[in-house]
Amino acid sequence: EVQLLESGGGLVQPGGSLRLSCAASGFTFSSYAMSWVRQAPGKGLEWVSAISGSGGSTYYADSVKGRFTISRDNSKNTLYLQMNSLRAEDTAVYYCAKDQGPGLGATTPPFDYWGQGTLVTVSS
Amino acid sequence: QSVLTQPPSASGTPGQRVTISCSGSSSNIGSNYVYWYQQLPGTAPKLLIYRNNQRPSGVPDRFSGSKSGTSASLAISGLRSEDEADYYCAAWDDSLSGSWVFGGGTKLTVL
Asked: Is the CB of B95 inside 8 Å of chain A's CB atoms?
């Protein structure tokens, strides 16, 4: 059974940093690309970032480019999101999601399994 | 403002058939597959339809997807109370460096 468990959320001041983790189990982690998707309170879904199965390729939404860094440790079956220079508009529940193949982009169906999410609140 | 456009709300009575539309452009729906997700209240989203019209195992055949040009639709037949949820469409967008884009979501109410 595929399981994704996010952690690391919390309250942080504007301009601060936070690192999210997503522990994966139930599948061969290195064989699948992974993504982060966020949802602001009462709002819709917004894709944040994706990383290939090997970790060699990454994509970012324009809204987080240069501030967030996605990475993975395939030996630990764990996905990360390092968030720097946080802003109030980054407040959201952050979900990690598994893609259906190792690559990125249009050819790999996305988000077939989701974690339960972790809440990040950016406020002074 | 979402890249993909969905109606904010839809409704139907038990047993009815409802459709939810998703409108995009040539850089997303017009040239790539469409995906649909269901988000029940207080839970994480769940994949409902992939590659325009394919259902993952376990998704009832009451749910179906279609695509034509730069628009797509999700149809739910034999509506049930447990279908009351938010529904989102998504597609890859080829513009600039590429990204996944979502619709703003449609809240389905079962009357």
From this structure: no
